[in-house]
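Hey,
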Amino acid sequence: MAATPAYDPPAAPPENAPDTPARHTGTIVAGCLAVCLAQIGLVLPAAINGSMQRALQASGAELTWISDAFLVPAAVLALTFGVVGDLYGRKRLVVGASLLAAVGYLISATSDSAAQLITGQAVSGIGAAALFPASLTMITAVTTTPAARARGLASWTTALSLGALVAPLLSGGIVEHAAFQWAFAVTGILAVATAVAAWLLADESSAPEGRSLDWPGQITIALALLALLYGIIQGPSDGWGSAPVVLSFIGFAVFLAAFVTVENRAAAPMLRLELFRIPAFAASAAMAVIGMFGFLGGAYDLSIRLGVIQHQSPLRAALPFVVIQGITPFIWPVLVRLLHRVGPGPMLVTGFTSLAAAQLWLREVPVHETGLGALLGPLVLNGVGFGLVVAAITAAAVNVVPPGLTGMAGATTSLVRDLGQTLGPAIVGAVALGMAADRITGGLASAGLTPQEHGIASAVLADGGPLALHTADLGPLSGKLAPLTTDALAHGYDTGLLLTAAACAVAAAIALVFVGLRPGASRTAGAKETAA
């Protein structure tokens, strides 16, 4: 869903950018195209998970990796790419990242296996990780007055929201009439067009003074997150006690400890760990991780319900995400005024509570109900809650740190928020698929199957998991299994919604205790940055 870059720009950079006002509009256009492209890639799979799963006969774990392969690099590499842009030029980085994303989309567009699609998603995600921060800083570099910068940032935010809104319609509309690979092919063409536009329209800018790369920190945090995700995603299929899964969790602990060690010793760390010694900031970071896990986990749960369990068409599966994503830009002016009047605390408490209520409401909608009308209430509540959270979450974090650390605090909040979003599909998928597999295994004996049919069903379940069994073409056997697999998957993903709703409720409680409901905090620097 919607994301913003985890990037700490230099506090007062001596920008190396030519003063060419006639080209400033071109730079803003190029930056907006770049962030729109990155956001399209992030949201693209939501409407077509069902089509991808059926075409590739992907297991539940593979389907989760298809989403997380893009999310992981977009989350953990944005800080480093922000520094790369400062050192070597933002225009150069946007052009290169767009072309890299195009290569990834080409890999995905020609995929005939889940492994190839996952590879393509990872390559595209690396490109997006560079596009998010570079597109923003190339705009701020050429907008030197407060009014111009406000207009530039408003354009960038609008493009970000537009990408989230367009992505499900783009992928759903294309796959409604063609193979899912065409959605990635069209996005690849957009990536090439973005690279050309940036090359022709944008001014180059850089701010190398005082910037350096923290490769040890970047490598250790990336390996730690990959190890954690491998254990979570593969646990239900490989077994939680299997050697690879156990070793992955051990690897996570080792790499996380290494990250903390190298960051404490680094001259220019990618994260200032001393921020977490401030209790209110640590609580805000925890709130961001837990709350955004709840939001994106719920969105992933919804995409599986629509596309895989209900077999809805890609375009119909896209419409609920258009509703969710379309609300935030529509109410954004109201959100900015709220931030100034009441501060981030009431907005976060209300937003996370709304998200929790929306997911509990969605859980009560029967799985056989496929009409948009039955989902409209929870979808609108979800969209409003997400808008409230997005508008206030960075302000809540930067309000509690010294003024000199507000940039790093905002970047850290973005990073941990993105990490929470990455964990959403992984944890929800693991819980839902594990419960569904157990329920199917227990129900096969009473499903009225012959011994041969029982053996076939058990083999498909063991090889591909519950999603593969639900969508496999097994002739008359599929009809016999459909009630069982539908019930098991609905039960598993309903449990996933309980988990995500609980996470949002916990985030609301953290906001209530540590941010509070006291109005007036919006006059601090953090709220001013978010409002801008």
